[in-house]
């Protein structure tokens, strides 16, 4: 029996087929591949949490919980852009109702959390980039930071209140001095361990956002108090250094409690919304005024991407940061033994 010949499709037919598939959002691979079993939010979010750092999870977890509560049984390919936008508007409204001025930060974190989930889905080939609804939801534009360098007399008032009130003024003063001398972020202080102390060279190793690790000079006085604190409060060598008297490591709640208490004694602290990050602004502003941009950038732990090409040619180093710490605290630093302290420290925490 003769089998009739099958005519090959013409170029025009193939082009028409490609055009139709393109308009339908379908690829040729989609026609021959097995259907993808897209998981639900309840299945994916716990796995996403495991991939995040402590600080990132702390920022996003509220929004993860919301999505789990509302969309637990929904597949990741079901929500649409309008649904995400509607949820973002509810996040904004609730944030304003809880005291936020405009809710921008809450919406920004919500969008970041959603994108984090869908990025994980893309990596596992459950969602194609073209079908990712979170890519279509814009983050609100950031406004300039309202933070500024705290004047010396007000910084002295903050330290005085921390030293004279509360259930553990020794811990609170150590926290304030650590942040003032190093300009570290909260996550860096919370992650500090006794193994991160280079006692001989007066350096602390900071683990901060973006999985960055850097050595930061500190004064001999601060190093001595960190060592004493770790020993007296029984901090294991490779576990968190900052601890309560009972040996339990502190969390971010200690910071919230500290600034709430200071705000009760100093109303302007509560009105301005001052937090520990203001100390980073304060220290880096002082360093920039006295030692210039390159040293400030090194002091802050910023990378080349945040400073432009010029930073490649005007890099600073630990010796210059050590000199800045020596001037700021009025103490000699092992990295710059020739330094003769002749400038009075401006930092109230360095007294």
From TrEMBL:
Entry keyword set: DNA recombination, DNA-binding
Classification via Pfam families: Phage_integrase
GO biological process, one term: DNA recombination
Positions of the Tyr recombinase domain: 145-326
Domain of life assignment: Bacteria
Signal peptide region: none
Example of a GO MF term: DNA binding
Entry-linked InterPro entries: DNA_brk_join_enz (IPR011010), Integrase-like_cat_sf (IPR013762), Integrase_catalytic (IPR002104), Integrase_recombinase_N (IPR010998), Tyrosine_recombinase_XerCD (IPR050090)
SUPFAM superfamilies (UniProt xref): DNA breaking-rejoining enzymes (SSF56349)
PANTHER family for this protein: INTEGRASE_RECOMBINASE PROTEIN MJ0367-RELATED, PHAGE INTEGRASE-RELATED
Similarity comment: family membership: Belongs to the 'phage' integrase family.
Protein name: Tyrosine-type recombinase/integrase
């Amino acid at each position: 029996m003769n089998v009739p010949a099958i005519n090959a499709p013409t170029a025009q037919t193939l082009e028409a087929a490609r055009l139709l598939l393109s308009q339908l959002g379908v690829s040729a691979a989609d026609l021959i591949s097995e259907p993808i079993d897209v998981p639900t939010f309840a299945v994916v979010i716990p796995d996403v949490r495991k991939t995040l750092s402590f600080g990132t999870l702390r920022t996003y977890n509220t929004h993860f919980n919301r999505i789990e509560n509302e969309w637990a049984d929904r597949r990741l390919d079901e929500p649409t852009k309008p649904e995400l936008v509607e949820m973002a508007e509810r996040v904004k409204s609730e944030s304003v109702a809880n005291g936020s001025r405009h809710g921008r930060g809450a919406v920004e974190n919500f969008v970041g959390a959603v994108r984090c989930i869908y990025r994980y889905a893309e990596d596992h080939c459950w969602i194609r980039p073209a079908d990712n609804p979170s890519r279509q939801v814009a983050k609100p534009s950031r406004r300039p930071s309202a933070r500024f360098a705290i004047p010396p007399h007000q910084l002295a008032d903050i330290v005085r209140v921390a030293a004279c009130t509360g259930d553990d003024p020794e811990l609170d003063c150590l926290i304030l001095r650590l942040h003032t001398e190093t300009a570290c972020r909260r996550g860096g202080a919370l992650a500090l361990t006794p193994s991160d102390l280079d006692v001989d060279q007066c350096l602390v190793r900071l683990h901060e956002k973006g999985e960055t690790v850097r050595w930061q000079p500190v004064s001999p006085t601060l190093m001595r108090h960190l060592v004493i604190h770790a020993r007296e409060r029984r901090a294991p060598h490779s576990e968190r250094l900052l601890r309560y008297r009972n040996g339990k490591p502190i969390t971010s709640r200690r910071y919230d409690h500290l600034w709430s208490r200071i705000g009760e004694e100093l109303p302007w602290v509560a009105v301005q919304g001052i937090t520990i990050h203001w100390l980073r602004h304060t220290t880096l502003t002082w360093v920039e005024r006295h030692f210039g941009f390159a040293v400030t950038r090194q002091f802050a732990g910023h990378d080349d991407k945040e400073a432009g090409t010029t930073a490649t040619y005007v890099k600073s180093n630990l010796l210059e940061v050590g000199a800045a710490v020596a001037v700021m605290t009025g103490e000699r630093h092992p990295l710059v033994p020739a330094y003769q302290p002749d400038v009075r420290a401006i930092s109230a925490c360095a007294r």
